């Protein structure tokens, strides 16, 4: 998802993220599988920003008289659905009607979107989401799985979607699967930077996982049976607005290298699974953890909300 789960495509944004993620995993599988309890918040920001670049580039390529600011405005009106944004153009005031005539094809728009989003193979993705035959198959799969309803997908649902996407594989994506990519030689400075980022992430991974488990343990003390346990940590946001002070501590710099502020609180969103009901959908929790150890951690479950395309 972090590498190819973009929200642009022929379906609604949430469905596009699911479809693009499964397709990317099929065609560009990771060379090494790593077990994680936490997803990188920075990587989430990156894929969200790249999705936005793709959406804006799609519209600006299709309608060359449209500026990026106008594209953003139309995406807000259309809740980030390019098809609806196109329809909204017709309803704009008369001076903008001339710019609502497409200058390029949809497939060229997706090529621009994939390029702007730094996709590893823009040509393969363009062929995947730009083909009319593929689009019809994706819409059928979306209707069968009720992707827009916001309910969790089962393993059977994902298997059905994977089989549907295998039928949509293009010649370009198949050739990518057959290629044996040789390792790329990089500069020592870049290797050192990557190693440093990896070290910081795993350090944060260990600290945050410990804090979340402590918060869950305190929450479980108030329950009778059915205690939830950690499923996956979704986002970590250090809070420094009021409670920060400069620090030259190396551990502080390793935790958040972009600032020397010492964070007094950290807000964390995570999923938890009930031990007695492993097949139930995971619950979303919010946690706040202080800097003074596990005793300052607490968490509460949040009310589920149906995903809104405008939130992406």
Automatic annotation (TrEMBL):
Residues 251-306 form the DUF3615 domain. InterPro entries: DUF3615, PIR2-like_helical. Residues 1-85 form the PIR2-like helical domain. Pfam families: DUF3615 (PF12274), PIR2-like_helical (PF20235). This is Uncharacterized protein. It comes from Digitaria exilis.
């Amino acid at each position: 998802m972090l590498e190819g789960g973009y929200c642009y495509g022929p379906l609604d944004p949430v469905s596009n993220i699911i479809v693009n993620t499964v397709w990317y995993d099929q065609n560009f599988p990771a060379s090494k599988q790593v077990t994680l309890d936490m997803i990188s918040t920075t990587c989430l920001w990156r894929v969200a920003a790249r999705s936005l670049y793709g959406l804006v580039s799609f519209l600006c390529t299709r309608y060359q008289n449209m500026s990026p600011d106008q594209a953003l405005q139309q995406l807000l009106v259309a809740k980030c659905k390019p098809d609806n944004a196109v329809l909204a153009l017709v309803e704009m005031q008369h001076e903008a009607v001339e710019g609502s005539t497409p200058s390029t094809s949809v497939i060229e728009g997706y090529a621009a979107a994939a390029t702007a989003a730094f996709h590893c193979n823009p040509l393969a993705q363009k062929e995947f989401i730009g083909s009319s035959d593929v689009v019809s198959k994706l819409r059928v799969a979306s209707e069968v799985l009720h992707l827009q309803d916001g309910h969790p997908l089962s393993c059977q649902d994902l298997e059905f979607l994977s089989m549907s996407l295998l039928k949509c594989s293009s010649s370009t994506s198949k050739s990518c699967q057959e290629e044996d990519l040789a390792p790329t030689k990089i500069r020592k400075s870049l290797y050192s930077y990557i190693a440093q980022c990896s070290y910081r992430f795993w350090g944060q991974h260990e600290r945050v996982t410990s804090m979340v488990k402590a918060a869950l343990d305190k929450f479980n003390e108030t329950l009778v049976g059915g205690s939830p346990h950690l499923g996956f940590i979704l986002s970590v946001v250090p809070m420094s607005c009021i409670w920060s002070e400069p620090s030259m501590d190396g551990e502080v710099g390793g935790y958040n290298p972009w600032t020397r502020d010492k964070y007094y609180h950290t807000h964390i969103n995570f999923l938890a699974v009930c031990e007695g009901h492993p097949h139930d959908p995971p619950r979303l929790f919010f946690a706040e953890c202080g800097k003074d150890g596990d005793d300052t951690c607490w968490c509460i479950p949040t009310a589920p909300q149906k995903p809104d395309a405008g939130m992406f």
